[in-house]
Amino acid sequence: MNRGPRPLPSHLERKLSDLGTTIQVPPAPDLVAAVRSRIESQTGRRRFPPARRLAFVAAVLLIAVMGGVALFSSSAREAVADWLGIRGIDIVEDGSVPKHTGTSLSLGRKSSLGGAREVVPFEIALPAAPGLGRPDEVYVAQTAYGGRSVSLVYRAEGGLPPAAETRVGLLITQFEAGLEDDLMQKVRTAGVEVEPVRIGASPAYWISGKPHFVFLLDPGGGVIEDRTRLAGDTLLWERGRVSIRLESGLGKGRALRIARSMRAP
Amino acid sequence: MGDRPLDDAELVKRAIEGDLHAYEKLVGSYQGIAHRTAYLLTGSSADAEDAAQEAFVKAFHALPRFRPGAPFRPWLLKIVANEAVSRRRAAGRTERLNLRLTEVRPSGGAVPSPEAAALRDEGRRELLAAVGRLGERDRVVITCRYWLELSEAETAEVLGCARGTVKSRLSRALGRLRAAVPADLVDSPTTTGGGGSGK
To answer: What is the largest distance, in Å, between two alpha-carbon atoms of chain A?
Structure first.
C-alpha cells in the first residue's frame, strides 16, 4: 500500500534506548536445576520422550465438538487451559451454539496472493491438483502475537461442492504453529473422529464426524483463537514449520489428493 | 560472546537426542535474557521467573520443531514473550505495567548538576509510565527493539511476523507514544550528543 512508515523520531528512539539501560530488573534467578527437574519428571512419565522424536510437538490443535457451549461462554483461554489440564473435558450440551457461525468465516483481511506473500513469514503452498489453480479469494489474519495465517478460498463451483459449514468449495488455511500428538487423542474422546493419515512423510489427521470448533496453541503455548466458527471435515497436517488445514465437502480421498498436490512456488 | 565449547546448533541437536546436559548449557546461556524479557513484559519478578522457567520447559519439548541452523535466541524469546504475556493476561492484569528506574549513577566523568539529574530522571519516569500505558502489542515491539536491543530480524521472529511488519508496528507504537508524552521528550531540545546510533 503506502511506501512504508514515515522516518522515525530518532530523539524519542534514543530516549527509549537510554531508558532500557535504566529500568530496574531484579537479578535473574538460576533456572537450570528447576528446568532440568521439570523436564525429567515430565519425560519420565508421559510427555514427548525425545527418543521417540515426535514430529508433532510444539503446538496444539484443540477442537471442541459442536454443542460445547461451556467452552465459549467463558473465555476461550480458560477453556483451553481446562482442556489441557488434568481436569476432565467439560462439554455441556445445551444446543445454543449458533447454527450459522460458518457463514461469516472471519478469515481476516481480504488480500491477494501477492499481498499475502509479502506479509507472511513462510512460503504459501498452493494445490496443483487439476482444476485448482489460484484461489478465488485470499485472506490474511493475525494470530496471537502478530503472527499471520493465510486462508485460500475456492468457490463452490464445477467439481467443488459447498462444504457443510463453510459453504465454500475449499478452504485452505496455513499458519506457523504445529500440532500436538497428545492433544489429538483428546480430540477423539470429544466425539470427533480423528483418523491418522500421511501426506508424504508427514503425519496428518483426517477429522470428521460432528462439526467442531478449532483452536490452536502456538509454540509457546499461547492460545491462537483460530476461528470461533464451526468446521466440518478437515484434513490437517504440517509442511515444514507450517501447519495446513484443508476444509471441504470433498471427502477424505479427494482432500488427500489435493493436499498431496500442494507445492510452494 | 565468550568462547563456547559447543555452539548452539550442536547443543540443540544433542538436546533433541535427549541430552539434558546439553540443554542445561543452553538454559545457562540464555536464562539472563529470558528473565529480562519476561520481567520487562510482566513487571513482576514472580511472574518473570515462572514465565522464564515455563518457557525453557516448553522450548525443550518444542525443540524437534526448531529449524536447524536458525538462531536459538529469538526462537526462545518468542516462547518466553508468549509465556510472559499469557501469564499477565491469565492473571487478569490489565492495569498499566509497573516498571521502575534504577538509581542511575554516572560512572566517572561529568556528574550532572542535581537539577539536571532530577529533570532527566523525571523525563525517564514519564516516558516509562507512558510505555507502560501502551497496549500490549505496542509494548512488546518497543521492548524487543529498544530494551532487549534485538535486531529487526530477531524481533520479527519473536513477534512471529514479517520484517516489514516489525517496521510498521514499531512506527505505529512510536506514534502512539509520541501522542502520550510531553513534546520535549519527543523533540530534541538540543542535538543530543553523538551517542550510539540505535540500530
So the answer is: 64
